[in-house]
């Protein structure tokens, strides 16, 4: 018996898995409705209905809603998402109203133990944050989160913190995220499982506890959506083919004895299959090392993207390519 944790998930249709995760938690990276007012000046994604049960053949123990897309079509779509999850009997956490503590924690029963699930979005991901009167994601405020962890210690057997953080496309955490993760473990979290970067990020064991900085995309289809809503109309279109690094992810597992493990998967068409491949392992030791490595990685990404889709560069392209 194992509890599975999946990364960023968008279900525009029914997908298939080559394995059977009876118990699982995932990050739902989109509202389950496209009706509502689009968020301003960003890429807006949604799914018309829930394909969760059809894809996984069972209901998740809970869903994280702490991310930068769940409010993409405003409170109307968010509330329809909540109604759908309630109708399907699926608990959720990480978003809502402040007086509800953004539905943190979701406390689930697994193997006779109580597990607390808490989700938060880092300010760097530009999520819509909730307050007392407006729905939105819980903010990753380290002091408040550490206090919530302290309050949970006597109530549950295991505490899972799921932050939505990191720089998109970058396969390692920021130095600040690494410091925050260590603080979360020091405060009493038993594991940190992050997502948002759309690629797998590094993993480490700190003080005997696992930190997965980014699981990558579990299921995330190609994008071809209107975008950059200016208040009256969409002004652009986002077209993105999900390359191999966007179709690979880690799946974290926890067994009855709270032993942590993981395996890797790859999305091929509409099938998610187990597949082994090399994982990133670099971690920043200080802010200077992070900035230097980030600059090299961003240049590498620009070159790789140009080789994948060569075109005649303009002056701006050449300046960015040469750093």
Structure, explained:
The protein contains six helices and 19 strands. It is globular, with a radius of gyration of 19 Å. Helix 3 runs parallel beside helix 4. It is of the alpha/beta class and 323 residues long. The chain folds into two domains: 2-280, Purple Acid Phosphatase, chain A, domain 2; 285-323. It has helices spanning 52-56, 74-87, 142-152, 175-187, 287-308, 315-321; strands spanning 2-9, 16-17, 23-28, 62-64, 92-93, 95-96, 106-110, 113-121, 136-137, 158-164, 191-193, 203-206, 209-212, 217-219, 223-229, 234-240, 248-255, 260-268, 271-274. 22% of the residues lie in helices and 29% in strands. The strands form four sheets. Strands 1, 2, 3, 4, 5, 14, 17, 18 and 19 form a nine-stranded mixed sheet that branches. A six-stranded mixed sheet has the order 7-8-10-11-13-12, covered by helices on one side.
């Amino acid at each position: 018996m194992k509890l599975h944790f999946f990364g960023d998930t968008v279900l525009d249709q029914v997908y298939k898995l080559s394995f059977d995760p009876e118990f699982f938690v995932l990050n739902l990276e989109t509202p389950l409705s496209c009706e509502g007012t689009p968020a301003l000046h960003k890429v807006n994604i949604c799914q018309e209905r829930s394909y969760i049960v059809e894809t996984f053949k069972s209901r998740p123990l809970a869903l994280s809603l702490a991310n930068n897309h769940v409010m993409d079509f405003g409170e109307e779509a968010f509330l329809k998402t909540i109604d759908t999850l309630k109708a399907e009997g699926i608990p959720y956490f990480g978003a809502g109203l402040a007086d509800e503590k953004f539905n943190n924690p979701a406390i689930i029963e697994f193997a006779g133990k109580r597990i607390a699930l808490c989700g938060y979005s880092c300010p760097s991901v530009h999520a819509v944050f909730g307050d007392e009167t407006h729905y939105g994601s819980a903010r990753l405020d380290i002091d408040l989160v550490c206090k919530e962890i302290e309050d949970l210690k006597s109530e549950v057997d295991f505490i899972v913190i799921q932050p939505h953080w990191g720089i998109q496309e970058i396969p390692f955490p920021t130095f600040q995220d690494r410091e925050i993760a260590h603080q979360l473990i020091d405060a009493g979290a038993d594991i940190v499982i992050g997502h948002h970067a759309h690629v797998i990020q590094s993993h480490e064991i700190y003080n005997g506890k696992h930190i997965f900085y980014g699981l990558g995309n579990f299921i995330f289809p190609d994008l071809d959506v209107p975008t950059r809503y200016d208040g009256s109309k969409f002004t652009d279109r986002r077209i993105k083919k999900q390359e191999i690094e966007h179709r690979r992810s880690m799946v974290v597992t926890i067994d009855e004895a709270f032993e942590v493990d993981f395996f890797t998967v790859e999305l091929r068409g509409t099938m998610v299959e187990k597949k082994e491949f090399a994982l990133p392992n670099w971690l920043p030791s200080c802010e200077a090392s992070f900035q230097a490595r980030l600059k090299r990685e961003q240049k590498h990404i620009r070159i790789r993207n140009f080789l994948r889709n060569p075109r005649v560069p303009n002056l701006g392209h050449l300046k960015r390519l040469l750093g």
